[in-house]
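An example makes the point: we print one protein in full, the chain in one-letter code, the fold tokenised, without further comment:
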Amino acid sequence: MMNIMSHDWTEKYRPDSLSKVIGNPKAVSDLVSWANSWKKGIPQKRAVVLMGSPGTGKTSAANALAKDMGWDAIEMNASDQRTGDAIRNIAIKGANFNTFMDDEYVSAKEGRRKLIILDEADNLFGNADRGALPVISELIKTTKQPVILIVNDFYALSRKSAAIKTDTLQITFMRSRTTEIIKALDGIARSENVSVDQEALKKIAENSNGDMRAAVRNLESLALGKSAVTDDDAGKLSDRIVRKDIYDLMNAVFREKDAMKARRMMTDVDETPDHIMLWIDENMPFEFRDKGDLMRGYERLSRADIFLGRVSRRQYYGFWSYSGDMMSAGVNIAKRSNVNAHERFRFPTYLMKMSRSRSVRTLKNGICLKLSALLHTSTNRVSNDVLPMLKIMVKNDPELAKNLVSELDLEAEEIAFLLDSKIDSKAVKDAMPPMVKNVKEGNVSKDGSSAVKPKSVPAAEMESVKPKDEETKKPQPGQKSLFQF
């Protein structure tokens, strides 16, 4: 009988219980333990992060958990509005108040709970998140209901929020094995009355690269309008090019004994060699516990650094290949002991510090640029020679601070940087001109016009008030402007 599909197989065969989730028994067990801890009250970790590559069953596991526990699910996915207000209205209110769900009163006191699911949570924190980050941090700290964040790239998420790293339980979902995918596809094919060759099932499974969702969709596309799928049909599938993330590469370099696999994975990771070197350097002391392994590993890494230096000096990027060989395959074969670490890979400290100081460095560069234009010198000279002394002078001379604001057209953030003060401190307010103060207080609009209704002035008083001559604003002969030599 010819197969005509009524709807998406990925939804039709989505597991409705954790017992039906393919692979990842450890992740499922940890998720169940966390859910059971809510039976005793609010646990220490109120939120859990399900992380892993697409198609590993994270979303299916979250929804299956809600059904197994008898919880009502409130889900925000990628199609929802990703603003702080939207998350607050949906997630935080849902996590802190009793509500009606499916025409039934949901009371936490009676054991009924709601599971708040934020799918693709790593996409919440782009440049246009509009307040999403602090609201998410508030949610995971104050929620009275279980919360699940589903992410593909935990590294991108955790580097923007310390709370998400420290206040959540992280559970990793790994890609399914080929044998597990073949078994699941065979069951789906039987349910749809489609005959599929074993070789065809193997090709579909291998082509998916561990992505169960992709495997089901490929099987569905091949079975459309057919009663049988042959080996030749499966051979028409194009190879899937799947980008590996940095954690996959670290696992291949440090914990697998396949040097060529580690080298191949270097080309699949969307990171530059110098960035990857920082990751390897940060994690090697924790992964290579044997002193001999550590010595050999850093010897390979130093050789990789030599090639990177040649790239910088000669501008010949062909050396990237040699550098990649040394830091991937070279570091992998440097390990000769059988001692393995079981900790999570660490984010490079250097990148973390640079990320935290990015706004400060941007502010400093802006000030140096303004000073260099005024002093007719380089920004490097200003940064090294002028700025340190100028900051000391500004702190001890309020008038100099006012003159700097006027001459350089400094913003409040910039003068706060020079004074080493907060933007709302008295020293910063005193340094800003009256017009700026009035704008901040709402008395004057940004175009300089009055934002409040002016008081009426008697005509007699108007005669006594004469406008200042514009010429008085110009420097008088012999008078020097700030930094005029």
Remarks:
- The beta strands are 47-51, 72-76, 99-101, 104-106, 114-118, 147-151, 168-172, 195-196, 228-229.
- Confidence is low (pLDDT under 50) at residues 1-6, 100-106, 125-129, 435-475.
- The two ends are 94 Å apart (CA to CA).
- The chain is about 55% helix and 5% strand.
